[in-house]
Structure formats: C-alpha cells, structure tokens
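Case study 2.
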Amino acid sequence: MATAADMDAMRRAIALAARGLGSTSPNPVVGCVVTDAAGRVVGEGFHQRAGGPHAEVHALHAAGDRARGGTAYVTLEPCNHTGRTGPCAQALIEAGVARVVYAVADPDPQATGGAHTLRAAGIEVGQGLLQDEAEAGNIAWLTSVRLGRPHVTWKYAATLDGRTAAADGTSRWISSPDSRADVHRLRAESDAVLVGSGTLRADDPHLAVRGIEGATQPLRVVLDSRATIPPTARVLDAAAPTLVVVREGADTGHLSGVDVARLPHDDNGIGVHAVLGELYGRGVRSVLLEGGATLAGAFVAAGAVDRVVGYLSPVLLGAGPAALAGAGITTITEALRLDVTETVRIGPDLRITATVPKGA
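Prediction:
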C-alpha cells in the first residue's frame, strides 16, 4: 500500500515531468524522483528534450551512490530498449535501487517491458500510483501512441453569449490580456499551432510564443488548400518554423523557401486525418487548434478533438459568429457532451477546460 511519502514523491515527479511539455516530442514527458534507503530525496530529473537523457538518468546522476538501496518514482514505466539513449530499466538496475514505483504503463511496443526486466533483476516494482494524474500530464504522447495521431486541443475565446466576434466581424479583443498571455503558455506546451486560411485572412496571426523565457517555439501550421497565403503573412517570418498545407496541384510559386506539404483532397477539401497524419509523420504529438468556427467544426465532425479550452469573457454582443460551425450535429441527442476537468479565473475571464470522453 502506498504511503504518504510515496504519494508526495510521485506528485513531485509529475510536476517535474510537466517541465518538458512542448520540448520532448516525439518522446513523452517523464519525471523521476529518487530517494535513498532512508526515504530522503536524493535525486530529481525530467526528460528535457528528444534525444537527451531520460528522466531516470538525470535523477540517478544527481543521486549518485545514494541511490543504492533506495526507491525510484517514475511517471512512466522505465523504457526497456536502446534508441538514441540506453534503456532506463538497465540504468536503474546498475544504480542498485531496491524499488521502482511507476504511475503509467508504457503503451509503446518498442519500449515496454521495463517492469519485467526490473523484476527479473530482483527489484521490487509497484505500478499505478497516481496513474490518472500522471496520465493527464502525459496525455498528448499517450494519445499519439494509442491512436496514431497527435492529441488535439481546440482553443477559443468567446463572450458569455457564445460569440467570437461582433456582427461586423471585429473581434480584437474579446478576451483579456491575462487570457491572451495564458494562450502563449498553451502554445509553448504544444508541438504545433494550427489555423486555417480564413483565420489567416481575417487576423494575420503570428502564432509564435511570446513572453515565456526559454520556450520551444511550436511548428506554425496553416491549412490553406488553395495556397492563398500571401508571402507577407506574419506567420511566415523567422520567429518560429512554419508549414503551409495545400492540396495537390496548388500553385505555390509565390512561397519560395516556405515548407509546404501537398496532401490529397476531395470536394470537401483536405481531410482532417490527412493533416494530422502529415503532422504525426513530422514528429508532432500535440496540436493546438486556433482556427475559426469552420475549421473547429471540421475537427469535431472528424472526431479529432480531444480537449477544449474555452476563455469566456464577461461580455455580451447579441449577434455575431459562434465558436463552432459545421460540426455535423443536428439534434440535441447528437450533442458532444464533455467532461469538465478545470475551471479557473484568468483575470476577468473564466477558462474552462473539458475533455472528450473515450468512445464519444
């Protein structure tokens, strides 16, 4: 049975793992805490970047000989394979730990088996401690392994009566400066930020992260099937990498030097899953969808939205576009009902985070 000390150590490991959000793809975020034989914390670490040492290696390096006879708390089952780094299960064995406790089993068939290796070496292994908390913190990578596509968060800002712009099309600014700063945090935690050509024409967004020191810039993705994006668009500057997704046959002669992906299309345009497949192949494991109502509706209709983050401002407009359109929902029985996981006051606004239930 887990003790209070076990719980505290794992919660610390989960907090450490979160430091890697946005910089580890296509690898997971992982945190590790090592205690000595007397239960004192002697080492901490987290996976900082793909190709770099894993969380266990950082924590064991900090602990040194004090890890012998101690316990390692890890948010994800220690890996059992050699990739760009060695297997963490073997590193734990060589460090002489007596016990390993992990939160979430590794679903990656290439890396799983670490628990078996540890037990075979005589190490006591516990699993499932704070599993739900650890899974929530690593949900983007876990979703990508389980579904073979990036995890998608749809972000929007709206008034209390559900409008994202006024009747004349003006929308700056519905949300407060506090909420807009918080969106930069979401961007920094994501591998890619995606908008459609409509949002590009209306707002000329920049999409790069600002105001967060040391942030890894996400890939800026513009879904622009006919390649209407002008070469002067702000999203094409050098602040962050950019990918323009167009349909096969689109004229991109004006986009010299721009990274372009050409995808198949039909009468409805480029398919949502084709876009996500392209991004997955590029190592993207989390996407922040910042497009307008039509693009959001297409993702919802395709069953490709995993989380919704809505910023609701204490403003009334009475008219204007809604946040979602064309989602394929025509009756109340078809409504996509979400699980609210968090409500937070952000300045004068309310940020509501909700997830799509499994199987919805």
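The longest helix spans residues 4-17.
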